[in-house]
Amino acid sequence: MSCFIIPDSIIREIEAPRARFWWGTTPDHKRVHWKKWKDLCQPKALGGLGLRDFSIFNQALLGKQAWRFIQRPNSIISQVFKAKYFPTSSIWEAIASSSASFTWKSILWGRNLLAQAMRWRVGDGSRISIYSSRWIPKPWHFSIISLKVLPIDSKVATLLQTDGSWNADLVRAYFVPFEADSIVSLSRPSASRAAAAMIDTYCWHFRK
Predict the structure, then answer these.
(1) Could you tell me which of 57, 25, 30, 26 has the C-alpha nearest to residue 41?
(2) DSSP labels for 70-103?
(3) Where are the alpha helices (DSSP H) in the chain?
(4) Cα 102 from Cα 178, distance rounded (Å)
(5) Which among 51, 84, 95, 122 has most CB atoms closer than 10 A?
(6) 28 pLDDT more than 90
(7) Collapsing DSSP states into helix, strand and coil, what is residue 178?
(8) Residue 83 to residue 80: CA distance in whole angstroms
(9) What does pTM read for this prediction?
(10) What is the dihedral of CA 76, 78, 82, 83, to 10 degrees?
């Protein structure tokens, strides 16, 4: 399940005996399935029972493979896939051509799940585009909605002072109030921290 997209027909074959067991169906006695299986797989907080949805689990495992490409770009497998499928871009911009392998198409399906909650963690800001990157922690998305008054290719480093702290006056001048508040509230590594702490990196927004 961590290498390929499992076809829906196989997912149904896996889930059918689970559903029959749950509702007490036997070869001699058929029972009514009072709720859809998808509803039972919803989290308990949303009215479900928290049962595992194998399709979602499959996508999560493939997302983990995509995450390895991001975290370990120098590994052999990452370099091979990059050279073949996205030599001039990052995995976030990569697409699957009609001739792409099923493995690559599967990994991109997992990447799409990651993209829903991945954003940049600001280090020195040199790699993060102010307007096209996802970097502001907000409940619904992570991109800027303020008017583009700075050059379109401006980096987040433009908004930082020499000591690494936010230039609050500049931020509040160029962004709507709620976005400015989100930006200046982002924690900053101190200037005395190791250089590794100042590198822009991807992070999972909902990490506890």
Answers:
(1) 57
(2) HH-TTSHHHHHHHHHH-TTS-TTT----TTS-HH
(3) 8-23, 37-40, 54-71, 76-85, 102-115, 168-174, 177-184
(4) 43
(5) 122
(6) no
(7) helix
(8) 5
(9) 0.72
(10) 10
